[in-house]
């Protein structure tokens, strides 16, 4: 039986490489997004801890410590707002890279499906050819057996 050869294998390999490269780019963008979100979440936790400290120990703090604590809370509020902008930009970048990855995956998948269909056609044609050859061999054998049987009778 002949071997299956898909003429577009080099194109399929190329598209696979493009998809792999895009997966790396997307992973980096997703990692940057997670990092930015972690930084924002850290600011939020620190602000919550600072506000709880203010709430619980307000009467025990002197004026300087109160001013410094409130100033630090304001700083954390501004940092959270600024970090949210970074998170939004990182999320937009990750979404862009995800969209590119989806397109490249579709391009590769189209060729992979085409290859699979061509393989199925090839295998069915090979099986049909093999069946025809087997039928031809059996037919010749039957003709010989019947011819020999007619000659000997």
Account of the 3D structure:
By secondary structure, the chain is an all-alpha fold. Helix content is 91%, strand content 0%. It has helices at residues 9-57, 63-152. Helix 1 (9-57) packs antiparallel against helix 2 (63-152). The radius of gyration is 36 Å and the shape is rod-shaped. The relative contact order is 0.13.
Layout: helices, strands, pairs:
Layout: H1 9-57, H2 63-152
End-to-end gap = 41 Å
As a percent range, the share of strand residues is: under 5%
What are the segments in which pLDDT stays under 50 over at least 5 consecutive residues? none
Query: Element order, helices and strands?
Result: HH
The rough form would be described as rod-shaped
Task: Characterize the largest beta sheet: strand count, sense, and whether it forms a barrel.
Answer: none
Number of strands: 0
Counting H and I runs of at least 4 residues, what is the number of helices? 2
Radius of gyration equals: 36 Å
* Helix amount: over 70%
Please state the average pLDDT score.
Answer: 92
The structure class reads mainly alpha
Key structural traits:
153 residues, mainly alpha, 0% strand, rod-shaped
Short account of what is shown:
This protein has 2 helices and no strands. By secondary structure, the protein is mostly helical.
